[in-house]
Design brief:
This protein is an alpha+beta fold and 339 residues long. The protein contains eleven helices and five strands; from the N terminus they run αααααααβααββαβαβ. The two termini are 73 Å apart.
């Protein structure tokens, strides 16, 4: 818009110097300002967001080139400079348009100025010397498509960089998933689980809210591997992780701890609350429907629960939970014990 205003000011300076016809300049000004106001309203109101190109880059460039073609007929004294403005308009395509559209606009500019030159040379040969117009057209034919082609290449580079950035974001996201998720179950891995648990223990220390930790161990998992193979064993782990996510609360941290062990962290839960949560998980896992993909290898789990005590370390809480788990396994498995 600033460029339009600058050109219109220059146009009226020409009028004041009697170099340009005032009536023609008035019509050019009305069309230019009307078009700019229309584009401004469409963009700022959000109406343009409904269309494939919300920036309206192509319509704006077509409008500008057409306007320059009209200005070429009105301003014969500076018509060479108008060709430079057309080149500037074409460069804007590099920021928004696809490469093919940039090249098409180059040929559109050639056509618009070619028509303007032909009209000028036919209607007013004294102001538009046909020999000079032919020379101007040859120059324009040589450099406008080239400039449009360069804009197209820049546009392609922009698109390539955009694609590379998207691929990089996807790759970083995948790396983050691999770094924080257990590949087999999709649950948080031990490292990420520790980060989440440390965050919850810090919150507990600040607020005084209860926090319980449970270590879950699948019963007789080695026997499953030995009897049915590691493929079935992996499916058992996947099933336990998947079904656990379905039944546990959203604020519970459920992660694979290693091997057949899982960790369950229950914020804002007392020992009684934690026992209820683990019992609900046990009842859910007792359903044959949960094990549809590996029914012959369905299994139970043992659990040891410990409440995090302010003043003790996280390792001390884990040791107490692990001791409770050992007690549950010693008493026959498929049990929950508290520390």
């Amino acid at each position: 818009m600033a460029l339009y205003l600058f050109c219109l000011v220059a146009e009226w300076i020409g009028v004041s110097l009697n170099l340009v016809d005032a009536t023609q300049s008035l019509w050019l000004t009305i069309v230019a300002l009307g078009g700019e106001v229309a584009f401004y309203v469409l963009l700022r109101s959000g109406i343009s967001r409904r269309w494939p190109d919300p920036t309206l880059s192509l319509p704006q460039m077509v409008f500008a080139i057409t306007l320059l073609g009209a200005a070429y007929l009105i301003n014969p004294q500076v018509r060479g400079e108008l060709l430079m403005l057309a080149a500037l308009v074409l460069e804007f395509g590099a920021f928004q348009l696809p490469p093919r559209r940039c090249r098409d606009l180059g040929w559109f500019a050639v056509a618009v100025f070619g028509v303007a030159m032909a009209i000028g040379a036919t209607v007013s040969p004294d102001r538009f010397d046909p020999r000079i117009e032919v020379f101007q057209f040859a120059l324009m034919l040589a450099f406008l498509p080239v400039i449009a082609g360069i804009a197209g290449k820049l546009s392609q580079m922009r698109l390539d960089q955009k694609q590379q950035r998207r691929q990089l974001r996807d790759a970083l996201k995948q790396v983050q998933i691999l770094a924080t998720r257990d590949e087999l179950t999709g649950l948080p891995n031990r490292r990420h689980a520790l980060e989440l648990i440390e965050r919850e223990t810090a919150r507990t220390c600040r607020s005084g809210a209860p926090l319980c930790v449970a270590i879950l161990d699948l019963d007789h998992f080695k026997r499953i591997n030995d009897t049915f193979g590691h493929g079935v064993g992996d499916e058992v782990l996947r099933t336990f992780g998947r079904e656990g996510r379905l039944v546990l609360r959203a604020d519970n941290i459920f992660a694979r701890w290693g091997g057949e062990e899982f960790i369950l962290v229950m914020p804002d839960s007392t020992l009684i609350d934690a026992q209820t949560i683990v019992r609900r998980l046990r009842e859910h896992m007792a359903s044959p429907e949960c094990w549809a993909s590996c029914l012959r290898a369905r299994t139970t789990f043992s659990a040891g629960i410990a409440e995090f005590l302010v003043g003790e370390t996280l390792d001390e809480t884990f040791i107490r939970a692990d001791a409770a788990l050992y007690e549950a396994k010693k008493l026959g498995r498929d049990l929950t014990m508290t520390a």
